[in-house]
Amino acid sequence: MTTTTVRFASFVLGGLIAASVFSIPVFAAGDDSETMPVCKKGEVYDKKTKKCVKQSSANITDENRTDYAYSLAKAARYDEALAMLDTVKDQNNAEVLNYRGYATRKLGRTDEGISYYLQSVKLDPHYAKVREYLGEAYVIKGQLDLAKDQLTTIKTICGTGCEEYQDLHAAILDPSKI
């Protein structure tokens, strides 16, 4: 390679890196398919327009707000996720309660998180993701028998091949995976 070729390759690679670092919206951390792009603070991702809009002026559905709160939580922006969930009109919703539990648990308030998970389970006993997160909370508390109960329930909901079963099973075997 000539010096010019190396410089050109470095220029192109540097441009690609810069473009990927400075692009907005930023995608949430984690590999869950349910997450959507996350925006800078004070904005919300609008699924209809597929862009970030000011949160205060947005005419966003409860479902969109709930999904966006989950994306914020998966991006480790837990306080923002809770604030977004506060804007949802229907607070008595299995997903809202589950994601509130998730963000709360990730903030270190495991018992409070469990209380939200249990409310979510009452509303939708066949919601596998809340069962997974409830099981993970029990693992954190060292209550492996209760975590295994959730794993058994998940197996009846979606089998052993679903992501929720596999993730909770991995957490029970190795709590550092939570």
TrEMBL record:
This is Uncharacterized protein. Residues 1-28 form the signal peptide. The keyword Signal applies. Pfam families: TPR_16. It comes from the Bacteria. TPR repeats lie at residues 94-127. Keywords: Signal, TPR repeat. Transmembrane segments: none annotated.
